[in-house]
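User: Structure please.
Assistant: Input sequence and predicted structure:
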Amino acid sequence: KTTICFEMITQLSGRPPDPTATSNCIESFVTLPEYGGEEMTIIYDVSGWRQKNKDGKIIDEDVEILEAAAQYAAGTGGRPYIMAVNDGQLHEIAKMLPSGCSQLLKDFFSELLSMHSAAAEKSELLPNLELVNLSSIASDQLMALCLDGILAREEWSCIEKESDTALFGPNSSVVANYHLLQSEAVRHRL
């Protein structure tokens, strides 16, 4: 995600990303005239950028930025925003919105989640909202496939073959975790 954002800034602005901005995971810049010459903001990694207050909610300064992004998406103001976020993080951020944020911001995240779920690229609700899904598979499906691939390996036969050793015996954390990862309840939480 971050590399793609860096490439977009270079392409759109004609200069490399600002190292100071990249460490903060957010950068505003003016696009080249052929791209409209307008100010744009990229959040390289929403989970790395946003900060939480003591209640676990997104801090006011970051909410203001998200409010501006929602206003632009709704066509009611602001400038273009690009946000790079994983689908799991998108759900977490939606839960971290403070109760006092605007209904528009709540709708913005609800629409993003709906679009992702429906594999939609263009919002029917917010005229300037588009979703580019960089992965052809959702992270929860990817996690399930990874776990299946790891747990199905024949090397796990050592749990039975070497059950008399400390590493794979009855008190082994390796064995306990192996069995936990096969539990549907645990896998669902992952």
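The chain has two domains: 2-118, 139-189.
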